[in-house]
Amino acid sequence: MSILYLLIPLSLILLGFAVWAFFWAVKSGQFDDLEGPAHRILFDEDDNDLTPEQRRQRQAARRDPTDAAADGSARKDTPPSDESR
């Protein structure tokens, strides 16, 4: 029975910490975008996964997309479009 005198205040302190952590997370914007990370993982757009040569090709294509399409070669880091099927 005497252990309850320790456990009840300890559980209230833990509950208070959990409530404070929740309100801190809401206030700091942790729950602002719930769907973005779930959709972002489906797309392979991370430049860190590419080799340095592929990274340079992608940057060159972003700068001038007409030059990348003019040579007729498909880029290795992108899947073929639906129109080519």
Automatic annotation (TrEMBL):
Domain of life: Bacteria
Keyword RNA-binding: no
One Pfam family per UniProt: FixS
Record-linked InterPro entries: Cyt_oxidase_maturation_cbb3
Biased composition (Basic and acidic residues): 52-66, 73-85
TM helices/strands, residue ranges: 6-26
Record keyword Nucleotide-binding present: no
Region (Disordered): 45-85
Keywords (A to Z) from UniProt: Membrane, Transmembrane, Transmembrane helix
Record-linked NCBIfam families: ccoS
Protein name as catalogued: Cbb3-type cytochrome oxidase maturation protein
Lineage: Bacteria, Pseudomonadati, Pseudomonadota, Gammaproteobacteria, Oceanospirillales
